[in-house]
Amino acid sequence: METKENGSVETKNSVENGQLTDPAHWAVADVVNYFKATGFEEQANAFQDQEIDGKSLLLMTRNDVLTGLSIKLGPALKIYEYHVKPLQTQHLKSNVS
Questions:
Q1: For the segment 74-95, what is each residue's pLDDT rounded down to a tens digit?
Q2: Which residues are within 8 A (CB) of 63 and not within 5 positions of it... i.e. 6 or more apart?
Q3: Is 87 among the domain residues?
């Protein structure tokens, strides 16, 4: 794992051919493992408790992450900005191409 300048962590979890697999195909366990691998072990349990799979993850808004998961504000902001939002963007770009 490598920490990037913006505070996000690069992970080799759910990687296929050097790229993350499409999160739309992730099961709840894949989402939980992704967040555990990126340094959010404690917060990953919230995704398990709320049964957030890949499709649900891609539909989450900032407000969902900040209030719906019952996790502390600091980690919630990082999870949304450095992980959920980029995964959503990546998914949209790969489906438009």
A1: 999 999 999 999 999 999 998 8
A2: none
A3: yes
